[in-house]
Structures are given as structure tokens and as C-alpha cells.
Amino acid sequence: KISMFDNIITKYNPNSIDKGSIVNPKILPQMENTIDLFNHVKSKNIDNDIYILTPNIKSVNKALQIGVKNFSLITSMSNVFQWKNINTSLDNTKRNLSIMYDTIQDTNNDNKIKIYLSCVNECPISGKIPIENVINEFLYYYNHYKVEDICLSDTCGTLNHNDLKKIINILIDRYGVEPKKISLHFHTNSENLENIFKMLNIAY
After folding, report:
1. Coil, strand, or helix at residue 101?
2. Diameter of the chain by CA atoms?
3. CA 179 vs CA 47, 82, 120, 166: distances in Å
């Protein structure tokens, strides 16, 4: 992981990068050494914004203790998915995210926060998510929180470029969302991803 991280920074030098999650290793053992990796990153004194995914208030507090400055928070578009994934509702998730956000900001209001919206096109349990639901959930977080960006996460890998174009156009043209506040996370095949990149005018 250290070698992979160093290679990404050296070769691509992204403005920001997510590099792990503080989560119970019994649930996600592959994330067990996130703190070790973070300490390696801190020792390099790089200028890139390094984000840690903190799914609950316990992980937020632990991240603050070790000096994390940039936080990724996560929710979803599906109430069923929330219950299955973290045993709570979307409404309760909103309340928890508010507590997490305030805790991060109260510690240092220069801390940076991004929010991941999972199941942006389809829930693996309940199926297709209407575009208007995606818009409403995005705008809720966009209007309620000062965040670096909100990430539309295609959890099932089924989001096509036409639907994505509709979502982005509505957010920007109708509601005045700053394009830099929208980021994207895909689980999809190469052909679909190529079409999405063409739509976004990004070299693939």
C-alpha cells in the first residue's frame, strides 16, 4: 500500500486522495493498517490533501486524535441499503452526520470534509433510484454543509452516461451547483466508463 501510494503521488500528483478508512478490522480487515499508512503519509510532509473515510463518530474522534485533517463521510440514496449496511435509517444517518460534521468543524474549521452518496443509480437490494431522489439528496447536503465536494458513488456499476449527464446538468444548470463540488466514483465496465469519460470530455 505504501508503494502504491508513493507511485500515485509521484506519477499523477493528485490534488487529493482517499487512502483508507478507520473501521473495525473484523468488518473490513483490509483497512486494518490505515493508521500506519496515514503515519507514513504524514512523515513525507506532502502538500496533497489526504482524506480518511470515517463512517461513524467513533472513527471521527480516533482520526482527530492522530491528526487527520481531511474527512470523508458516507451515506446512501437507499433507506434499505442503510439498514442492511449499518443498521440504521437514512434519517438517523443525517442526524449522525450532523454530529460528525460539527465535531470535525469544532476541532478546526479549516478541516476539509467530503461526502459520499452511495447507490446513486441503483440499490443492490431495492433496485433503481429515481433521478429526482438523487437530486434531492445531493441538494440537502450541498445546502446544509460546507464541504469540498459531494461524490456520486455508482455502487452497483450500472450508471450510464445519459443518466449521469441528466443529473449533472440539473444540478449545475437548474440549481447552480458549482461543478467543482461534484465528484464521481464508479464501479462499472470499461465500455460504460469510456462513454462517461467522453460525455465529460475527459481523456480515457
Report:
1. helix
2. 45
3. 23, 27, 17, 14
CB atoms within 10 A of CB 130: 9
pTM over cut 0.85:
yes
The grid coordinates of residue 61 equal: 474522534
Are the C-beta atoms of 161 and 198 separated by less than 8 Å?
Answer: yes
Are 171 and 182 in contact by the 8 Å Cβ rule? The answer is: yes
Q: Which three three-digit cell numbers place residue 184?
A: 464521481
Interatomic CA distance for residues 14 and 51, integer angstroms: 12
Q: Locate 142 and state its grid cell.
A: 450541498
- Residue in 130, 131, 143 with CA at minimum distance from that of residue 178: 143
Average pLDDT score over residue span 174-190: 92
Q: pLDDT tens, 115-169?
A: 999 999 999 999 999 999 999 999 999 999 999 999 999 999 999 999 999 999 9
Name the CA radius of gyration of the chain, rounded: 17
Closest to 54 measured CA to CA, from 102, 115, 13, 140 = 115
Nearest to 55 by CA among 99, 80, 23, 101: 23
Nearest-angstrom CA–CA distance, 136 and 19:
29
Asked whether residue 20 carries a pLDDT value surpassing 90, the answer given is yes
- Cell representation of residue 120: 446513486
How many other C-beta atoms are found inside a 10 Å radius of the C-beta of residue 94?
A: 14
Quick one: which of 130, 117, 38, 43 has its CA closest to 74? 117
